[in-house]
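Work Package 3 (structural annotation) set out to generate three-dimensional models for the target panel prioritized at the project kickoff. During this period the team completed the workflow that converts sequence records into C-alpha cells, so that structures can be stored uniformly alongside our sequence database. As a representative example, we reproduce one entry of 159 residues exactly as it appears in the project archive.
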Amino acid sequence: MRKIASEAGILAGSIYYHFLSKEDLMSAVHDEGLKKISTSVRRAMEKESDPWLRLEAACAAHTGAILEADDFAGVVLADISRVSPDLQRLLNEQRNGYEEVFRVLIDELDLPPSVDRSLFRLSLLGSLNHASRWYKPNGRSPAEIAKTFVRMLRSGVGQ
C-alpha cells in the first residue's frame, strides 16, 4: 500500500480513506478493468449483426483491451488462486458478469449439439487471455489474433 501511495503521490493512510483493505483495492481495480474491457467489447459487437462476426469483433476488442499497456489488464488476468477465498469469490463473480457477454454471443452461434458451449467459451477466452504472455507489438494485431482463433474454433466445429 505504501508503494501505491508513493506512486500516487499521497500518504499511505490516505488510501485507507477510500479502501478499507488491500483486498478492497484489488477488487475495485479488477472491477474497473473488467468494465473497461466490457465497454470496448460491447462497442465492437454493436457494429456487427452476423453472430460469428459479432464474436470475432468481441474477441478482437477483448484482446486489444488486455494487451494495452495498463495495469488494469494485469489485475484482470492475475492468478487469483493465492488470494483469500472471500476475495476469490468476489473476483469470480465480477469475471462471471463480464463473461456473460461471451455466453450470450456463443449461444447465438449455430453450433452442432455435440459442442459444449461452456468449454467452447472457456477455450476461446483462455486462448485470448494467454496472448498477453506471448504477444509482440510488432507481430499480429489483436484483430488478427482474434480472427485466427475464431476461425480455428469455427472450423473445428464444422462451420
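Residues 13 and 20 are 10 Å apart (CA to CA).
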